[in-house]
Amino acid sequence: MKLRGIVGKLWLAMLVLVVGVLGLSALFQAGILEKIYYEQQTARLVAQGERLAEILVEQQDPYLAARQVDLLARLMNASVMVVDPRGLVEHWQAMGMGHMMPYMGGALWPRGGRGQGAPWRGGANDEQSFQPRFGQEARDGAPCPTPLVSRGEGGSLAAMMPFDREQIQRVLAGERVVRREYNPFFNADVVLAGIPLQKEKQVFGALFIHAPVAPLAANLKALQQSSLYALALGALMATLLGLLLSRTLARPLVEMDRVARAMVQGDFTRQVTVRSRDEIGALAQSLNTLSRELQEKISALQKIDAARKEFVANVSHELRTPLTIMQGYTEAILDGLARDESQRREYLQNILEEILRLRRLVDDLLDLRRMESGRITLRKQPVDMKALVNQVVERFAGVAGEKGTILEVHLPEVLPPVCGDGDRLAQVLYNLIDNALRVTPAGGRVEVAARQVAGRVEVAVKDTGPGIPAHEIPLIWERFYKGDPSRRRVGGGSGLGLAIAKQIIDLHGGEIKVDSEPGQGATFTISLETATMDNEKLLIK
């Protein structure tokens, strides 16, 4: 896999994406999840504390209140303390802090076990009470509750509490205080919550909860290991995907590159074998289409160039022959080789015939060029094909008689007119009959026939000449085409008659074809649309 190649770049991009996403995800989890976890623990602790505060406010039995405090402390593994409005401790359940108590001035509960003694009650002269139980006198000579907020150091619990005097006073004033800090005793983070005990905006005391938060180190380490495993797996999948892309993406591109390089070298035969239906397959199909189109265009250009060269050669040959003849007769006249005036006039007549031949050649070339470029305008009108055929055949009657060729005409009594240019259609018939007479030997036969077939008029010119081989039939419409020597031009033809005839019929929207077998002669047939009423109205307009 080349790093500079498209597959290498895709692999590198996927690898960076996977590593980046998983790395950012690990950082996010390590930071955000820890924060969310602590927030959830704090919310849970505060919710439990508020629920206990509601119970303590409504609870009339001090013993049941102490049981509720003990239950919450055990459930949350927390230290729970209840004080009255004067800051005197009513209940204190110190879960997990038994080893710390000796260093805090001894046991807090004079009677009963650790955290299990009966609650202390306030004296009879207390101005504020924590429900009626806080205003009752002490029974059995029990001492007063231990003050939490005291003026002096002796007997004060303020030094032991995680809350300072100001925060305790804020809680007793009805404000809830929550914070998180590190505790060296637990060697962990702890959540501290102070919740006022109040009802109808009257404060009856405060509830203080001091609970360690379960450590996240083990969970975070497991999460980091999972992230590393996911990172390694993502890198492996990116590598495998890169290898897969090298087969599905790089190989077709390499093959298309080879085909394109071959096209630069002029080889348009190579094709891309990609068969996928995605963008790569569409690109390969476009490249194959481009190759075929270029091959066809280049072949057409080569044919045009070959035709141009052949045309130039044929025109040169057609011009050279009459020019050579004229030069010979002119030099003979100038050198006085003519024996008498009649021979001199004969030489001049031959020169005139060659000049007329050159003129016909030039006229035919100009006509053919105008037809091929579409610059010729047909003067269409209803044409009587029966009269037109008779007119053209009469012009060749003398030529056929001199040559000893039989020229026959077979026309029906009624032949509908066709829509076309009479002069151009006469030119077509002239070329076809002229070719037939020139290739038909003496004693042969040339037949001209016409008929109506399915709304069209067909005119056929049949000769008894040597015929045309099947492989030459598509080529006879080319300019100056020369096939079998027996059918080559003899006399004054220009070699452009069939090419001009085909162009004229095509301009009329008709059809011209030839049926021939070697030794059996040839039949040229033209088919034209009859002049219907709609055509006549169009011609009048």
TrEMBL record:
Reaction(s) the record says it catalyses: ATP + protein L-histidine = ADP + protein N-phospho-L-histidine
Domain Histidine kinase residues, every copy: 314-532
PROSITE patterns, alphabetized: HAMP (PS50885), HIS_KIN (PS50109), MOTA (PS01307)
Limits of the HAMP domain: 247-299
Family annotation (InterPro entries): Flag_MotA_CS, HAMP_dom, HATPase_C_sf, HATPase_dom, His_kinase_dom, HisK_dim/P_dom, HisK_dim/P_sf, Sensor_HK_Regulatory
This protein's UniProt keywords: Kinase, Membrane, Phosphoprotein, Transferase, Transmembrane, Transmembrane helix, Two-component regulatory system
Gene3D superfamilies: 1.10.287.130, 6.10.340.10, Histidine kinase-like ATPase, C-terminal domain (3.30.565.10)
Statement: the UniProt record of this protein carries the keyword Lipid biosynthesis: no
Top-rank taxon, per record: Bacteria
PANTHER family for this protein: HISTIDINE KINASE 1, TWO-COMPONENT HISTIDINE KINASE
Name of the featured protein: histidine kinase
